[in-house]
Amino acid sequence: MSRIERVLSTLKGQGRKALIPYITAGDPHPDVTVELMHALVKAGADIIELGVPFSDPMADGPVIQQACERALKHGTSLRQIMGMIKEFRTTDADTPIVLMGYLNPMEAMGYEVFADAAVDASVDGILTVDLPPEEADDVAPLFTERNLDAIFLLSPTTTDERIRAISEHSSGYVYYVSFKGVTGAAKINVDEVAERVDHIHKLTALPVGVGFGIRDAETAAAVGRVSDGVIVGSVLVDTIARNQADTEQLKQALTDLLHPMREALDGLGS
Hints:
- The chain has helices at 3-13, 33-43, 62-73, 78-89, 103-109, 111-120, 140-145, 160-169, 190-203, 217-224, 234-242, 247-266; strands at 18-24, 48-51, 97-101, 125-128, 149-151, 153-154, 174-177, 208-211, 229-232.
- It is α/β, with parallel strands linked by helices.
- The longest helix is centred in the C-terminal third of the chain and has 20 residues, at 247-266.
């Protein structure tokens, strides 16, 4: 059982929902990423999605695009990110880390070299935004062989056939994108999400995490009621952008945003 599967299984047994924050590695500066990761865990994160900055993040809106620009301005590389995760692991051996990004940086490193480096850094899962299941046969097995969970995206328009195909390649959890469009682009419709997630659960045994549109404790709780976990990205990245000049202030701002979401999710079981 992978670290991701163990955490999600434990939460399910406790009647709790996963809180999965996303930040971009190297934003606002590579020197503070590990501190921010620890701050997220302290605020209640169960799993961390760590974004790999890329020059053309086509699935992301302006907020995360700008985060990638800030990280790349400081020369943040994939190898450097592996080093950040190793540093994080010196004091946190339990929190699963999912690397989220695009194929190009992985391809440039070499898929097998990348997979080995991920294992060496104690990465737990890989979420590749632009890797469809039809093209995953050359990549996903490299992750499976190394006990790295391969996580794929589902959208409101994903067909049943594709949901089944994606599930065959997936492990850990599947990431349901709550609306059509880029990150940070719209307001979430919880009723539509509930209906869709219920349908997805009929087609896969994997937990379903929901991302896009979760901005506060209220939306986190609403989505938590109908899913196995909530994925919080753009609002955290925007908070980083607005507080980047002072690291301590930044960590507190992230805590002030994330901790009420943790409390709201835990309140669902009471």
